[in-house]
Amino acid sequence: MADNPIYEGLGQLGQHVPAPQSPDEAQLERVPNPHAGTLFLTRFVAPEFTSLCPVTGQPDFAHLVIDYAPGDWLVESKSLKLYLTSFRNHGAFHEDCTVSIGKRIFDFTEASWLRISGYWYPRGGIPIDVFWQSGAVPEGLHVPDTGVAPYRGRG
């Protein structure tokens, strides 16, 4: 791996890296997209995302679905996992967590398009779902349903 120029500058892949203590401390990394110029969708699913309520300090839980159409860069998945883990000790409202994650990945990867869906488990009896996307879906991009059912409680 060290001899491959694709991996130059990656400081986390293949290394023991402690979990960052905050999103600001977390380092996203990217690699060249071997299919730059081809329209395709990549999906990351984080069904056990956690953050903290900024008021009570209690844990909040979400199921995140991140869909993006890469441009010249792919987000390196270990760095993404560490970035998402960094929210475990971070106090922020659901909307802030979801939108901040989407914007940071979109800007960092210079993606063609990105959508993040945050399905948050109930707080005070009310589930909060947060959605953000960078713009209109590019023509010809296959974007499947997120596969996450709406919250039904004991339904």
Characterization of this structure:
It is a single chain. This protein has helices spanning 77-85, 94-109, and strands at 30-32, 42-52, 59-69, 73-75, 113-123, 126-133. It has a domain at 37-133: 2-Layer Sandwich (GTP Cyclohydrolase I, domain 2), CATH 3.30.1130.10. The protein contains two helices and six strands; from the N terminus they run E-E-E-E-H-H-E-E. The termini are far apart. The model has no long low-confidence stretch (mean pLDDT 91).
* Uncertain residue ranges: none
* Strand numbers in spatial order across the main sheet: 2-3-5-6
Based on secondary structure, the structural category is: alpha+beta
Mean pLDDT: 91
Using DSSP, what is the number of strands? Answer: 6
How large is the radius of gyration? Answer: 16 Å
Distance N terminus to C terminus?
Answer: 50 Å
CATH architecture of one domain: 2-Layer Sandwich
Relevant CATH superfamily of one domain = GTP cyclohydrolase I, C-terminal domain/NADPH-dependent 7-cyano-7-deazaguanine reductase, N-terminal domain
CATH class of one domain: Alpha Beta
